């Protein structure tokens, strides 16, 4: 069963990427993002894509330029996540045949991103937008628009976000911080997946 959870592995190193990715997939999380401000992020993406491209969607976060998109595609990534709604980046992502999840915070950004071809919208930071903000967005967004809450979300509020109509979540430090062992990541992933399954409508 595929869950709409994106694991955000900010700070991960290439030497640990494969083992951490394997642990996440085993726990039930098969969407993996390596932010580009991590150490040698393209190497980590390439390592994970080579090993798990058939089992998971591997990609990059904090993607800010069209050159970044090309680099991620060359590394074997298939997902582009950004903190902002840069329509040039979104268009380049779709031209490259990748999935696009730009960050938004206003209805104007939502519609600009969708108009440029975004596959889904990253509510960032979702702690500021809140569930009431998402409800307001959903009243005007096209039916079926995918929304991902990122920033301040976790097992304690999954149910509240689902009730507001969210599609899924991006989870960063709740899953991974530099220095976490593979076992700790696996334990956290298992707990998050269990909470997601309980909360999902």
Automatic annotation (TrEMBL):
<keyword id="KW-0119">Carbohydrate metabolism</keyword>
<dbReference type="InterPro" id="IPR000887">
    <property type="entry name" value="Aldlse_KDPG_KHG"/>
</dbReference>
<comment type="similarity">
    <text>Belongs to the KHG/KDPG aldolase family.</text>
</comment>
<dbReference type="Pfam" id="PF01081">
    <property type="entry name" value="Aldolase"/>
</dbReference>
<dbReference type="InterPro" id="IPR013785">
    <property type="entry name" value="Aldolase_TIM"/>
</dbReference>
<dbReference type="InterPro" id="IPR031338">
    <property type="entry name" value="KDPG/KHG_AS_2"/>
</dbReference>
<dbReference type="GO" id="GO:0008674">
    <property type="term" value="F:2-dehydro-3-deoxy-6-phosphogalactonate aldolase activity"/>
</dbReference>
<keyword id="KW-0456">Lyase</keyword>
<protein>
    <submittedName>
        <fullName>2-dehydro-3-deoxyphosphogalactonate aldolase</fullName>
        <ecNumber>4.1.2.21</ecNumber>
    </submittedName>
</protein>
<comment type="subunit">
    <text>Homotrimer.</text>
</comment>
<comment type="pathway">
    <text>Carbohydrate acid metabolism.</text>
</comment>
């Amino acid at each position: 069963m595929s869950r709409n959870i994106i694991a955000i592995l900010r700070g991960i190193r290439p030497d640990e990427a494969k083992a951490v990715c394997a642990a996440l997939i085993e726990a039930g999380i098969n969407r993996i993002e390596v932010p580009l401000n991590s150490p040698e992020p393209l190497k980590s993406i390439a390592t994970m894509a080579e090993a798990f491209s058939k089992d998971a969607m591997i990609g990059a976060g904090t993607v800010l330029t069209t050159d970044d998109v090309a680099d991620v595609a060359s590394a074997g990534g298939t997902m582009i996540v950004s903190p902002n709604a840069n329509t040039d980046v979104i268009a380049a992502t779709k031209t490259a045949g990748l999935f696009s999840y730009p960050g938004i915070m206003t209805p104007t950004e939502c519609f600009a991103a969708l108009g440029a071809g975004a596959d889904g919208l990253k509510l960032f930071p979702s702690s500021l937008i809140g569930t009431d903000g998402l409800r307001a967005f959903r009243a005007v967004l096209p039916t079926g628009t995918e929304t991902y809450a990122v920033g301040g979300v976790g097992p304690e509020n999954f149910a509240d976000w689902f009730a507001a109509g969210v599609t899924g979540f991006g989870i960063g430090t709740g899953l991974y911080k530099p220095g976490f062992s593979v076992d700790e990541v696996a334990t956290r992933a298992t707990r998050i997946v269990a909470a997601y399954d309980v909360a999902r409508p």
